[in-house]
From TrEMBL:
Localization of this protein: Mitochondrion
UniProt cross-references to Pfam families, sorted A to Z: tRNA-synt_1b
Record-given protein name: tryptophan--tRNA ligase
Lineage: unclassified sequences, metagenomes, organismal metagenomes
EC number: 6.1.1.2
Database matches in NCBIfam families: PRK12556.1, trpS
InterPro entries assigned: aa-tRNA-synth_I_CS (IPR001412), aa-tRNA-synth_Ic (IPR002305), Rossmann-like_a/b/a_fold (IPR014729), Trp-tRNA-ligase (IPR002306), Trp-tRNA-ligase_bac-type (IPR024109), Trp-tRNA_synthetase (IPR050203)
Family: Belongs to the class-I aminoacyl-tRNA synthetase family.
Length: 336
């Protein structure tokens, strides 16, 4: 039976945090061990250039993300783990499909519309101020990432659903006109993956600057956990678990039984200081071994590089012959 192809990209624009781990990295790594699925995971480094123009940040974030996935047990023989920029075929496909993508379709893209709206709200005369062609065309590049490997399923956050619709739209047009035979990809959004709140109680996100890095060193981890916002109930007063950030983070890591036990502590009125110390102990134990591996990997960039090169070779072995067919289909081919 043909395996389902699952593909997802991670934009290297920051340091992986607990929210990334529970929401995306952990489910992906668990999936990578299944043998009915063929997984493709890649660092979407060309996408990172859309969001920021700090070369050191893109470079460092790429290495941190690669080291994180490897430290957490991604089996690179089982999956194809690569860096987008190592696959030139993707950029070539990006151009070919750009020429079949209606500009009007991109006008409707959320990221672009949000930028225009923010200009309007700020009374800026040019609605496109600050909008690069890269931002505008970003869903096309994402489509190229997906179609290049004929992915069936694409795990993404809900904010990316529109891009998957666009990918299907573009794939259908290509198939209709050129008989390219692209698979039509489907989004895979999981209702039950954990969403984690950050230090201030809002969703943990680097755009809110409220994150706890997954592999923060011990002292830093403790310091950050102590900063998590709680209400002002005193020790001895029963506390609600619902809506509490400490409880929510704990729940994303703990077993059902441990969660039930924690609920009891809240009812009994354990103080916030103790709850914070306990959360620290728990997370620290949970992450310690992976953090050691992470630190070792970060000291060994050559190894990370060789893992990604291995992935790129596997990816290109598929992408190159497939792109050749597409070039043929669109009329880019040798004479006669
Ligand atoms: N745009 C995605 C995000 O910001 C990352 C991404 C790039 C991606 N290319 C992709 C995800 C292809 C899935 C498939 O989350």
């Amino acid at each position: 039976m043909a395996k389902t192809k699952v593909l997802t990209g991670i934009t290297p624009s920051g340091t992986p945090h607990l929210g990334n781990y529970a929401g995306a990295i952990r489910p992906a790594i668990e999936q990578s061990w299944r043998d009915d699925i063929q997984s493709y995971y890649f660092l979407a480094d060309y996408h990172a250039l859309i969001k920021g123009h700090d070369p050191e940040r893109v470079h460092r974030s790429s290495m941190e993300i690669a080291a994180t996935w490897l430290a957490l047990g991604l089996d690179t023989d089982q999956v194809t783990f690569y860096r987008q920029s190592d696959i030139p075929e993707v950029m070539e496909l990006n151009w070919i499909i750009s020429c079949m993508t209606a500009k009007g379709l991109m006008n409707r893209a959320h990221a672009y519309k949000a930028a225009v709206q923010s200009n309007e709200e700020n009374d800026i005369i040019d609605p496109d101020k600050g909008v690069t062609i890269g931002l505008f065309c970003y869903p096309v590049l994402m489509t190229a990432d997906i179609l290049m490997f004929n992915a069936d399923k694409v795990p993404v956050g809900k904010d990316q659903l529109q891009h998957l619709e666009m990918a299907r739209d573009i794939a259908s047009r290509m198939n209709h006109h050129y008989k390219t035979g692209f698979s039509l990809p489907e989004a895979l959004t999981s209702e039950n993956t954990a969403v984690i709140s950050g230090l201030d109680g809002r969703k943990m996100s680097k755009s809110y600057d409220n994150t706890i890095p997954l592999f923060a060193p011990e002292k830093k981890l403790l310091k950050l956990i102590r900063k998590i916002k709680t209400n002002s109930l005193m020790p001895g007063e029963p506390k609600e678990t619902e809506g509490d950030t400490l409880f929510q983070i704990f729940s994303a890591f703990a077993s059902e039984q441990e969660v039930a036990e924690k609920q009891r502590q809240y009812q009994e009125g354990v103080g916030w200081g103790d709850l914070k110390n306990q959360l620290f102990e728990y997370l620290n134990n949970h992450l310690k071994d992976a953090r050691d591996r992470y630190e070792q990997l970060m000291q060994n960039p050559d190894f990370i590089e060789s893992e990604l090169k291995k992935g790129a070779e596997k990816a290109r072995a598929e992408a190159a012959p497939f792109l050749e067919k597409i070039r043929q289909a669109v009329g880019i081919r040798p004479f006669p």
